[in-house]
Amino acid sequence: MKNKPTYSIGSVDHALHLAQLLQQEGPLRVTDAAELLGVSRSTAHRLLAMLVYRDFAEQVDDRSYQAGPALRSTATSKAPLALLRRLAQPHLQKLMERVGETTNLMVLAGTEVRFVSTVECNQILRVGDREGQALPAHLASGGKTLLAALDEEELTRLYREPDESVDLEKLRSELALVRKRGFAINDQLTETGVTAVGGAVRRPDDEKPVAALSIAAPTARFDRHLLPSWVATLSETAAGLGRDLNAAAG
Questions:
Q1: How many Cβ atoms sit within 10 Å of the Cβ of residue 98?
Q2: Which domains are seen in the chain, by residue range?
Q3: pTM of the predicted model, to two decimals?
Q4: Which of 119, 148, 212, 247 is the most exposed place for a label (fewest CB within 10 A)?
Q5: Other residues' Cβ atoms within 10 Å of the Cβ of residue 89
């Protein structure tokens, strides 16, 4: 499992995290960056200035910052990420407390899923924070639930570029099963020793999901007998977040 290094360098971590946010979420103001990183405005400003210097960011006319030339080769998500993160946090926290494992919020961005927020459990052996990271959507549990909501034309268009790692016919069959079950499992497909269960988040008035939630656990502790209760809790949490998103949209 990939966890945060014990002796991490805070300033480097902040700069790399900020670069990820610019790449995945779009333009940010200094105040936005400071809030997301949990640092002062002056620190956020210095970090952004260094990213500009190294072409990882650039300042635009409204004085916000966007991804620079070094970060422009990735797909972005159309989901309202700032709103999702804010509304999802209490739901992720409660879900973590109920299942005792790390919980995540993710969105679809091209053929990847981006981790928007993570709440780590407090067990010694646990899956660590994945915020800002990306995984192949066809392998990740949350990614599968989001792909399963696409129609045939959308799925074909998404994978129109040849990719030897994706067997499209096999993927279609797997996604049909995900639609039938209402959840997906990633059993060590993206990381040895990690098993995750994912479910889609939908607004009550929209069939298309806006995001996905997942429960991630060390494979050594994962018990399939817990799957029914995990799926029920995951579905309940996703429905609650969906209602909050609907209310926020007015």
A1: 16
A2: 10-71 (1.10.10.10), 81-248 (3.30.450.40)
A3: 0.74
A4: 247
A5: 13
Our measurement of the distance from residue 245's CA atom to the centroid of its chain's CA atoms, rounded to an integer in Å, reads 17
Are 129 and 100 in contact by the 8 Å Cβ rule? The answer is no
Helices (DSSP H) in 159-226: which residue ranges?
168-181
* Alpha-carbon gap, residue 207 to 239, rounded angstroms: 12
List the structure tokens of 165.
């790692």
Contacts of 196 (CB under 8 A, 6+ apart): 104, 127, 140, 141, 142, 185, 186, 214, 215, 216, 217
Q: How many Cα atoms sit within 13 Å of 148 on the Cβ side?
A: 27
Give the single-character DSSP code of 28: B
Number of residues written out for the chain: 250
Average pLDDT by stretches of 10, the chain with 250 residues = 58 87 84 90 91 85 84 63 89 97 95 92 93 90 97 91 85 96 96 97 90 97 94 97 88
The sign of the CA dihedral 136, 139, 145, 150 is positive
Helices (H), the chain: 10-25, 30-37, 41-53, 81-99, 141-147, 152-158, 168-181, 227-248
